Amino acid sequence: MESFADLSNNGTYDNHPEYLPQSPLFPPIPTTQEGGSSENFSTQEDMLLMSAWLNIDLNPVHENNQTQQPYWERIAAYFHEHKQFDSDRHTNSLMHRWSSIQIAVGKFQEYYNQIDATNQSGTTEQNRVCQALELYRSIHKSSFPFMHCWNELRYSPKFASNLLKRKNKKPQHSSSLVSSPSTPDSVSFNVEDEATLELPMGRKTTEELHKITKRKVQEAEEAEDEYFKAIFVEMKESQLVARSERIKRVDELLRLERERQEFEKRKEEQEQEEKERERKKEERERKKEEREEILYEQRIMSTNTTNMDEIEAEYYSLLKSSIIKKRRSTGFQL
């Protein structure tokens, strides 16, 4: 088995392209159910099951006394009401499938947090995910089958809160006190703890063993409590970062919109100024033509026809009559 350090240094998507996560940067890939439920749920069923679980809450009035069955019947009703594919999963099947998802995703999140905590310089998000997948496979001897679920649940406050609640469930049998390490849904002890619990009854009384067990359970719960709190804090921080990025994008869009509006306003003002210049130019040209026309008419009106022959005198007389008629019709005062 590769060591954690080897996995941290060697895990890349170049070596394991089949582990590309489902995200806007990577298109969804077919998901096998290796290591998952024997019922072979499809990715569509898993996604709708998660949506049902996230949208259906326990009745706050009866939450402490309400059994699991009515709650999961509501989830099953939501599932079948919103499905757009063929599926005949019954309530128990959905409940067992969700249990598999919750346990596996919780374990994978723990491995991801371990890798993220190493703070490797230059390591991208994609490489951290790949290293977590390698770590999961090296421990469980199977590929992580719920990447599509982890992508949806990793930032869910309800999922984090549910993990915090589950840690308060104490084991009912002594055999459940010893479990595999890095299993976030159960209480775990190391080898030294097991040896302490297995001392012969002659050396330890039942009461003493009970106290030891109680103390170990409390220590495990406190450690696990810190782990789930860290997950919840990380989720909240990730949400705040995502929200900050969205605000930055919105601010940038607003800035670009303001610049566009200012540009359009300046362009409109320039067009108005250009139109005003054209109007004034036309006005000057018109006045110039009027002045030239008046000067021309004045020359005609002041022309002396006494020494002209009869035809030329008649021509100028007609011009003068035409000028007088035009000026009278336009209101021009001679």
Automatic annotation (TrEMBL):
Residues 1-40, 170-189, 263-298 are annotated as: Disordered. Residues 1-13, 31-40 have a biased composition (Polar residues). It comes from the Eukaryota. Residues 263-296 have a biased composition (Basic and acidic residues). Residues 143-323 form the No apical meristem-associated C-terminal domain. InterPro entries: NAM-associated_C (IPR029466). Residues 174-188 have a biased composition (Low complexity). Pfam families: NAM-associated. This is No apical meristem-associated C-terminal domain-containing protein. It comes from Daucus carota subsp. sativus. The lineage of its organism: Eukaryota, Viridiplantae, Streptophyta, Embryophyta, Tracheophyta.
